[in-house]
Amino acid sequence: MPRYGFNMLWMFSKRGDRAPLPPDLRQLDFIAKHGFNFIRVPLDYRFWTQGEDYTNPDEGVLSLIDSYLEACRERGLHMSLNIHRAPGYCINNPPEKYCLWTDVIAQDAFTFLWEHFARRYKGVPSESLSFDLLNEPPNPGQRSFTRERHEAVMRRVIVAVRAPDPEREIVLDGVSGGSEAIPELADVGAIHSGRGYSPFTVSHHRAEWVSEPKGGWPEPAYPGGGWDRDKLREHYRPWRETEQKGVRIHIGEFGCYNKTPNTVALAWLTDLLGLWREYRWGYALWNFSGPFGVANHNRPGVAYETMDGFAIDRALWELLLGNRV
């Protein structure tokens, strides 16, 4: 660390007959050209699994993941492989049949997947590949989740990965949707991955998949609503304290949905990115092209510049470039 880059949604969420996408080589070329070095790839296990037949993955789909890794390595980009939907848990709907925190069948399947990837990619250096075990574990008390159960599951999987692949770099997301630090796992030698979505009423204003707050969505303001740079600093204080235990910190996701006024988005992102630069933390925008991205996000009031065929939000692009260490 630090590593800087983007999330790529090539195999992010299987809905209906949706097929996984091949790597977008044009986007990767552009990203590498401008000195970024990190690609996070969230995965939905349902793309390679039939029903609950968890231990017989579709080799054709897994070979597509191989192509993601090859495309990233060819361009000097580190790829972080993330299970976004695991057997037994996903932060998004629909809920899983089994519960990762209480059901042995889900825990066994989750462990099998990571052990399988560990054997598959044994020999690929951690310079090129990391395993981000589980996207955004829930709030304590939700879906039978407790920190103790989560810790036990993560420790089991780490042991399973390191048995065939002792040097593999492992990433652990914070709990409560990635926002809360996990000092109880400071001793496992993993990178801890935080989020840049606070305040949520700014980052996800009027996002269609989010339940509308009681009383409706407040008009986004930053600074405002009790949030400013000092509040952001306090928000990340537990992460800094965990870092002092010898843990490396990375922000695996951040971004601002395109319904937030552009002046508010830029003011917030300026403070957020500036703080991470001060802390020397790397980060990955969700995503490159799309409603949270730096290209083609369609936020009103943005000055776009065409760069290598991409409509780039120039002001946001300069923030991303200028806040790398």
What key attributes describe this structure?
16% strand, 10 strands, 325 residues, TIM Barrel, two-stranded antiparallel ribbon, alpha/beta, eight-stranded parallel beta barrel
Written overview of the protein:
- It is a single chain.
- Helix 3 (104-120) runs parallel beside helix 4 (147-162) and helix 8 packs parallel to helix 9.
- The protein has one domain (4-322): TIM Barrel.
- It has helices at residues 25-33, 59-74, 104-120, 147-162, 200-203, 229-235, 237-243, 262-279, 314-322; strands at 4-7, 38-44, 78-85, 129-132, 169-173, 191-196, 249-254, 282-285, 304-307, 310-313.
- It is of the alpha/beta class.
- The strands form two sheets. The chain has an eight-stranded parallel beta barrel with strand order 1-2-3-4-5-6-7-8. The protein has a two-stranded antiparallel ribbon with strand order 9-10.
- It is globular.
- The model has no long low-confidence stretch (mean pLDDT 96).
- Strand 1 (4-7), helix 1 (25-33) and strand 2 form a beta-alpha-beta unit.
How are the secondary structure elements laid out?
Elements: E1 4-7, H1 25-33, E2 38-44, H2 59-74, E3 78-85, H3 104-120, E4 129-132, H4 147-162, E5 169-173, E6 191-196, H5 200-203, H6 229-235, H7 237-243, E7 249-254, H8 262-279, E8 282-285, E9 304-307, E10 310-313, H9 314-322
Parallel strand pairs: 1-2, 1-8, 2-3, 3-4, 4-5, 5-6, 6-7, 7-8
Antiparallel strand pairs: 9-10
Helix pairs in contact: 3-4, 8-9
